[in-house]
Design brief:
By secondary structure, this protein is α/β, with parallel strands linked by helices. The protein has 20 helices and 15 strands.
Length: 552
């Protein structure tokens, strides 16, 4: 019987039927009792919506479930918020856990960041890590930990043959690359004001130096991408005169050549014309309202040797400012080819920033986000060890980026070889980011990643600049306490001997035994047969003259 009724009148039309019944009742009430105009309008609108649902051809759910089918889309729209606020556990990291975000919020506001009643982490879980403490703790004079970029750490002399004449004393914790255009004007203003107050670096991202970067005078790392924004000709090629003019800005402390980024390594990008505002066009040196193309590769060089020559040229044009490059590790032989080009030319970058594939302020295709590029741990280890193997590590500083938000994150990366750490999403949280993951839609609820002038007004620059400063300072203060507890004087003293990882329920190992460092100058020996396979197989097949694998 029920099956018969469902055939005659499908139950899925019940909501539509109730709306029709409500319309008829409200119409009767209006005619007979002279009341019910509002219900009539409401039910009339719902019936009209149901008729539209039945006739439209794009959404099958609405054709089968008129009116009530819209609930599905409404719930789907708020699903991330429901999960974030009511379902997600404190330590579910997707991509950042609530505990991680809360830590940033507390430090940005200078609220109490202490936790009572013990850790919420499972200390018996595989992958759990800690830093060993000392029975002889130290006392460091300041939390303002720095590393000098542009000097050989062994000799204290200039780090390269191409003469870096303006070394930069960088904080070990800085703002990672995020372009104006990806971030709002107010976000850039707040980040740079906070960087100025704390005397730490603010990476421009490949969108170049905007007027908002210049307003407060904070230290800048100027990132040069494949689009050469801020230093390009009309055809997109590199323009040395424009580069020299921008690089002469005293705010610019370092020049960073971007080869790839963790969010979408090996992938170019297009900023659609409607999003290329007058401000963005002025900063990038492109026409307003026209698609802004960022190619997937550079046109200024095509071989590793040419790349080193280009780095030397950038350093010379900048007046001797520290010059280096950023990459997410991909094919190991391409990285080895760059190192061999350093050996061949005698030109070394002053620094290298290793971006992990877990990075992600930039929107990217899902496959790139999930499955392209090496994670930071593996990328940083390969770069650090290779430079050790050819005797260049002391001349080149290593930065890194990839989900670094806490003092332990910094300590761990420095144990793996980093000299300093960059954070993008951490500083976005300091600005008020809620991890709504709507960065690419223009509908950011906090005004951080939108170009909508009304939405941007939600981000009050002076208030958020203080939070950026506080997050930086309080994170370094926590790092200082950790360094002291380990019996050290500087986070640069942390090595893989200090960090322990649980490998199973009953076993733990020092990081140095899990990821042993390559012996100094090991790649200078003729016999490399005892080295890990990545070096044994690919180092002999890498060439300074080509990024291509040399197959015998």
């Amino acid at each position: 019987m029920l099956e018969y009724l469902n055939t005659v009148y499908p139950i899925r039309y019940t909501a539509m039927g109730l709306c029709v019944m409500g319309l008829l009742l409200s119409l009767f009430s209006l005619v007979a009792l002279h009341t019910g105009l509002l219900p009539l309008l409401v039910f009339g609108g719902l019936v009209g919506l149901g008729i539209f649902d039945l006739r439209q051809t794009k959404k099958s759910v609405l054709r089968n479930y008129p009116v009530i089918g819209h609930m599905r889309y409404m719930l789907e729209y708020v699903r991330p918020e429901i999960r974030q606020y009511f379902i997600e556990a404190d330590n579910d990291a997707n991509p950042f856990s609530r505990a991680q975000r809360s830590l940033v919020y507390q430090r940005a506001k200078s609220d109490i960041d202490k936790r009572p009643f013990g850790t919420q982490l499972d200390v018996l879980a595989e992958g759990y890590e800690w830093i060993n403490h000392s029975v002889a703790p130290t006392v460091t004079p300041s939390h303002d930990f720095r590393t000098t970029i542009g000097l050989d750490s062994r000799t204290g002399l200039q780090a390269s043959s191409s003469s870096c004449t303006q070394p930069y004393s960088a904080s070990v914790f800085s703002i990672s690359a995020m372009s104006f255009g990806a971030l709002s004007a107010n976000a850039i203003l707040a980040l740079n004001q906070g960087a100025k107050q704390g005397h730490f670096a603010h990476d421009t991202g490949e969108g170049s130096i905007s007027v908002h970067h210049k307003t407060h005078g904070g230290d800048l790392v100027w990132e040069i991408g494949s689009g050469y924004f801020g230093c390009r000709n009309d055809d997109g090629s590199f323009n040395p005169e424009r580069f020299a003019a921008n690089a002469a800005n005293p705010q610019v402390k370092m020049i960073e050549l971007k080869l790839s980024q963790g969010a979408k390594p090996g992938h170019g990008g297009v900023l659609p014309g409607p999003k290329v505002s007058a401000e963005i066009a002025e900063a990038r040196g492109v026409p307003e309202g026209v698609d802004c193309v960022s190619p997937s590769s550079h046109s200024a060089f095509s071989t590793p040797v040419e790349m080193m020559l280009f780095i030397a040229r950038l350093r010379e044009l900048s007046g001797g400012k520290p010059t280096g490059f950023k990459l997410c590790i991909g094919h190991p032989w391409e990285w080895f080819a760059m190192v061999k080009a350093m050996q061949t030319t005698g030109i070394t970058p002053d620094f290298i920033v290793v971006d992990g594939a877990e990075g992600g302020t930039g929107a990217a295709p899902l496959e790139f986000t999930d499955h392209v590029g090496a994670p930071l741990q593996e990328g940083l280890q390969l770069v650090h060890n290779t430079l050790r193997g050819v005797g260049l590590r002391s001349r080149i500083r290593l930065g890194c980026a990839g989900k670094v938000v806490s003092a332990f994150d910094i300590a761990r990366m420095m144990a793996l070889g980093a000299d300093w750490c960059n954070s993008a999403r951490g500083f976005m949280f300091a600005l008020g980011c809620l991890q709504a993951q709507a960065c690419h839609t223009g509908h950011c609820p906090t005004g951080v990643t939108t170009q909508d002038p009304v939405r941007q007004q939600a981000l009050i620059v002076p208030d958020k600049a203080v939070r950026v400063f506080n997050f930086h300072q309080n994170t370094l203060k926590a790092l200082k306490e950790m360094v002291q507890a380990a019996g050290l004087m500087h986070p640069g003293d942390i090595t893989a001997h200090h960090i322990v990882r649980r490998v199973n329920e009953t076993g733990v190992k020092l990081l140095v035994s899990i990821m042993p460092p390559l012996p100094l100058d090991a790649l200078l020996d003729r016999d490399i047969s005892a080295l890990p396979n990545v070096y044994k197989f690919y180092w002999p097949r890498a060439s300074a003259d080509s990024f291509t694998l040399q197959i015998e």
